[in-house]
Amino acid sequence: MTPNGWLQIAVFFVLVLVAAKPMGLYMAQVYERKKTWLDPVLGPVERLLYRMTGVDADAEMGWMEYGAAMLIFSLATLLLTYVIERLQHAIPLWNPQHLAAVEPYLAWNTAASFTTNTNWQAYVPEQTMSYLTEMVGLATHNFWSAATGMALAIAFIRGIARRESKKLGNFWVDLTRGTLWVLLPICVVYALALVSQGVVQNLKPYDTATLVEPQSSTTTGTDGKPITTAVTTQTIAQGPAASQEAIKMLGTNGGGFFNANSSHPYENPTPLSNLLEMFSIFLIPAGLCVTLGQITGTPKHGWAVFAAMSILWFAGVATCYWAESQPNPLLHGVDQHVAAAGVSPGGNMEGKEVRFGIANSALFVTVTTDASCGAVNAMHDSLMPLGGLVPISNIHLGEIIFGGVGAGMYGMLIFVILTVFIAGLMVGRTPEYLGKKVEAYDVQMSMLYFLIFPVVILGFSAISVLAPFGLSSLSNHGPHGLSQILYAYTSAAGNNGSAFAGLNANTHWYNSTLGITMLAGRFLMIVPMLAVAGNLATKKIVPPSLGTFPVTSSLFTVLLVGVIVIVGALTFFPVLSLGPILEHLLLRSGISFS
Amino acid sequence: MSDIAFLSASLVFFFVAILYVYGCQSLKGGHKDA
User: Fold this and answer.
1) What SS3 string covers A55-100?
2) Are A357 and A551 in contact (CB under 8 A)?
3) Residue A209 CB neighbour total at 10 angstroms
4) Under 8 Å CB-to-CB from A131, ≥6 apart: which residues?
């Protein structure tokens, strides 16, 4: 670890801290339908959209109607993406490489993945998806799924703020305003900034370059004999990457335009683009803390939640940075720099870009899994065992450390409900949250929310580690193999999308079960969350008394962090002890698995 | 054939999710919150 590395991490956090308030206040204005400076341009577009779709913008919805609208919208967009993928070869538009139709298992997995904001990719994008599929099938989903998550978070916040109301807002209005006022304007500017750094944006066929130094490649033929091929040219993929990259990061989607994701020089060319990409992952989730405080009329509560998120973020990045700064114990005695010195970054540089180094890789790893982004600028499969423990634990905690756009906020608010419930039990009083009594139904729905997550992760992981069709996809055995499978289902259920890439997930078993996991991890958790919001909205406000637990204090922040860590640890520690923790201990004893 | 299977599976999942909405609401009836 170096002072320079820590300074870069600090600069990142200061940027997030400074941007949170203006972003949060702006979103509060947008969702409360107050005046903004973009109204003269976007107002007519919004009204036209409502007129075309027959939406009554003033008609509000109860939680069930809000949830049903969200589900129907998600189903329709999932089917649209599936059809585009299957027909891309037949559409004579933006397919200069003449890519074939995506096969059904993969097409469904991808449609489920992008609908749920997961953006898990069991394919190589530049060899699989036409430009049309990328733009119309996938990039649009990046906007829709992000705007859906934001709308749901706002619905929950309204549930807290409203008194004796059965309404949470209008899903179609929230979806439209989130897309038009928040995501689109930022993405236009952001995409241009990325182009200025060297991210490509075109519809050209792929380039072919002649290698300065011809290479040779040796493979094994069907007869078992080696075949050596001279390689003199390289194909350089092109495409509309910048426009997709912007929403990929801002919407915490994470699906790369290229297979190498944000370690590809056409997606993330410079240290500045790297900083921008990490910053944009946290921008909306951090702002939503301020939005929470603004709409509920308790700004200090928003900052208390922000503080809890920041503490957990720092714990993650410090652990990952420390772990990756250590050399692999198996390399002891090998002539290498084990500590940062001169131009050598030291530590574990396997799977990392030299231009980003250890600090910016560790920070990216932490940020992308704190949120439900899943973009990567380093290969998570190559992290040291304890370095790899950080991203998987971040997702296990529910991606509430700033979290996915919207999803992080409503996930965190469910933890807040649980925290005030536990605090109420401690003092023997009916728990209250911002004047609303937290009662049996609220806790029941919150526990349903918490239970779905481990059930799908641990259930499918258990089957996969026992069955040949699960084990045959592994590139490593022993505890690292378990980590690969566990990470895949964790990433899918958490709608993250990053991977321990050693697992070949493009099989019928993984494509179908990971697709189910993504859908369950998104929609089966949203429904009880909305039920809590709907129930809270109907309640009266109880005046604070001496027994009221203040949710604006540092004690609340500490208790909230404690509840998150304990719930996460109790649920997943046993399986983590058999995966990354055991791998760490064995590696220190000189034992590894191929 | 696979296309029909996957499209049907998607419809079934979201149909079940809608039923789940009603299921969550019906649980409320069993509680007598103060």
Assistant:
1) CCCCCCECHHHHHHHHHHHHHHHHHHHHHHHHHCCCCCCCCCCCCC
2) no
3) 9
4) A94, A95, A96, A203, A239, A240
Residues whose CB falls within 8 Å of the CB of residue A152, separated by 6 or more in sequence, listed in order:
A70, A406, A407, A410, A526, A529, A530
- Of A112, A165, A119, which Cα lies nearest the Cα of A139? A119
User: Is position A562 within any domain?
Assistant: no
Among residues A133, A117, A362, A93, which one has the least CA distance to residue A257?
A133
Cα dihedral: A221, A227, A230, A234 (round 10): 30
Q: Which residues of B touch A78 (CB under 8 A)?
A: 10
Residue type, A80: L
Substitution target in B13, B16, B22, B26 with the highest count of A β-carbons within 10 Å is B13
Q: What would the pLDDT profile of A239-251 be if each residue is shown by its tens digit? A: 999 999 999 999 9
> What part of A 396-425 touches B (C-beta under 8 Å)?
none
Q: What is the mean pLDDT of chain A?
A: 92
Angle, alpha carbons A324-A125-A120 (nearest 5°): 60
Which among A64, A82, A437 is the nearest to B21, CB-wise?
A64
- Per-position DSSP letters for B5-26, written without gaps between them: HHHHHHHHHHHHHHHHHHHHHH
Whether residue A369 is predicted with pLDDT greater than 60 in this model: the reply is: yes
In a domain, A214, yes or no: no
Residues A254, A257, A260, A265: is their CA dihedral positive or negative? negative
The whole domain housing A274 covers: 3-204+239-331+338-557+576-588
> Is the pLDDT higher at A180 or at A219?
A180
Quick check: is A215 in a domain? Answer: no
Q: Please report the ipTM that was assigned to this predicted complex.
A: 0.89
The residue of A85, A519, A526, A532 whose CB has the most chain B CBs within 10 angstroms, and thus the best one to mutate to test that interface, is A519
Residue burial A446-470, b: 16+ Cβ < 10 Å; e: rest: bebbbebbbebbbebbeebbeeeeb
Query: Are the Cβ atoms of A82 and B9 closer than 8 angstroms?
Result: no
Confidence of residue B34 (pLDDT cuts 50, 70, 90): very low
Amino acid letter for position A103: E
Domains in chain A: how many in total?
A: 1
pLDDT tens digits, one per residue of A460-512: 999 999 999 989 888 888 899 999 999 999 999 999 988 887 888 888 899 88
Q: What are phi and psi of A404, to 5 degrees?
A: -70, 160
How many C-alpha atoms does B34 have within 13 Å on its Cβ side? Answer: 9
A231 domain-assigned:
no
Contact present, A125 and A102 (Cβ < 8 Å): no
Count of beta carbons in the 10 Å neighbourhood of residue A475: 14
Stated as kind and residue range, the H or E segment containing A210 is strand A207-220
Test A439 with B31 for CB contact under 8 angstroms: yes
Closest listed residue to residue A390, CA positions, set A456, A315, A329:
A315
In contact, A456 and A483? CB cutoff 8 Å:
no
B14 and chain A in contact, CB less than 8 A: yes
